Amino acid sequence: MAAAKSESGLTIYGNAPNSFFKPVIDAFEKAYPGLKATETNLSDNQVFAKYEAEAAQGARTADMLMASAPASWMQAEQNGVTANVTPQGLADFPPETNQGHGVYVMSPEPILTVYNAKLLTGSQVPASYADLAAQARGNPGLYRLVSYPIDNELDYAGIYGLVHILGESKAWSYLDALAANTKTYDEGLDALQQLVQGGASMDYIASGLVQGWAKQYVGLAGYEFMKDATPLIPRAVAVTAKASSPATAQLFLDFLLSKAGQDALCAGGFEASMNNYTPANGCTASLANLKQQVPDGTVYTVPINQATLDAQPGITARWKQAFHR
């Protein structure tokens, strides 16, 4: 704490919308009076590009990075972006929390589907990708869909996870069926706005942050965890090799892996993943809650490893074939 107080505050380049991440920063600053943290909200690609450009010039840059891009994290590790630090509290989390080389999963977020509650009700809301594909084929007028394009890192990771869980043949047969009815948006909030306004009835391969977003649209939109496949996308964090405030960054990392940090994450809609986690605030964004809603064997954390990076060209090409891009 003493070392952190002599530093110039914590700078984070991250992919979390500021409104979602504010409860986490507020809780950290309350736990450590006198310390300040700020997040610059960027896309996954911008997070790494901005840091590496500034670090190469010797400029003040981010002390921590946050992104949901397994393939990009691998490239960042290879480029020497991350500092190999270890947080306190790691033993209280699943093994997948530690992705190696100083990269830790802050929030293993479930890929889910979002639906317009005015256009789809009851049994019309598909509970599996198999059902969604069948409905899209059988009633394309009702099942107007939105999703991300493949060059969005979350979409790539989600499809990688679907292929792992469902098998390549089945996963692509579903995506082939969905493609003709799907309009893609680079920004998830744009797709969700389209859905709420009635321009689409479902958004698939949507971010787990919807669990926080949906609170303000009760009666207009709801979300569903698909019962045949739920990939978890690692929204990961790392202290940077060129951090100007390494002690503050270490404290923030420790905080994220504490009970108070998990409560703050859950309150913002991020997935709390502490073992045997019970929320203090009644929130439901947690792995403990998710596992009560989906069958065993249908959840898979997309890893930050070379295999995920190596598969990207093939999955990208197959997606473009399905979506005629």
Number of domains: 2
Report the span from N to C terminus: 52 Å
Q: What is the helix/strand order?
A: HEHEHEHEEHEHHEHEHEEHHHEHH
Assign the CATH topology of the largest domain.
Answer: D-Maltodextrin-Binding Protein, domain 2
Which secondary-structure class do the elements indicate?
alpha/beta
Assigned CATH superfamily of the largest domain? Periplasmic binding protein-like II
Q: How many β strands by DSSP?
A: 11
Number of helices: 14
Task: Profile the largest sheet.
Answer: 6 strands, mixed
Report on the architecture of this protein.
The protein contains 14 helices and eleven strands. The chain is of the alpha/beta class. It comes from Amycolatopsis pigmentata. This is ABC transporter substrate-binding protein. Keywords: Signal.
